[in-house]
Amino acid sequence: MPEFEILESYVLFGERRFRVRERGSGIVFNVAASNDEEALNKAREMFKRIKADRVLKP
C-alpha cells in the first residue's frame, strides 16, 4: 500500500494548499484541503485515479 507524507502546507489566494508526496515513487500532488487528513485522502484518490498503483513496481 502506498505511503503518503505532507511536504508543506501554504495559503494561496485565501485557499489552503498542501504538497503531498507518495514515498515509493516520489510523485508529488498539490491539493487544496482544509486539513492534513483531507489532503492525504485527496492525494490517495488522485494516485488511484491516474492508476499509478498499477503502473509502478513495488
**Helical percent range?**
25-40%
**Uncertain ranges:** none
Average pLDDT? 90
> Total helix count?
2
What is the straight-line distance between the termini?
A: 9 Å
Structural write-up:
This protein has 58 residues and is an alpha+beta fold. Strand 1 (4-12) and strand 2 (15-22) form a beta hairpin. Strands 1-2-3 form a three-stranded antiparallel β-sheet, with helices on one face. The mean pLDDT is 90. The chain is elongated, with a radius of gyration of 11 Å. It starts with a strand and ends with a helix. The protein has one domain (4-55). The chain is built from two helices and three strands; from the N terminus they run E-E-E-H-H.
Give the SSE layout.
Layout: E1 4-12, E2 15-22, E3 28-32, H1 36-49, H2 52-55
Antiparallel strand pairs: 1-2, 2-3
Main attributes of the structure:
58 residues; alpha+beta; 2 helices; elongated; three-stranded antiparallel β-sheet; 3 strands; single chain
Report a brief summary of the structure:
With 58 residues, the chain is an alpha+beta fold.
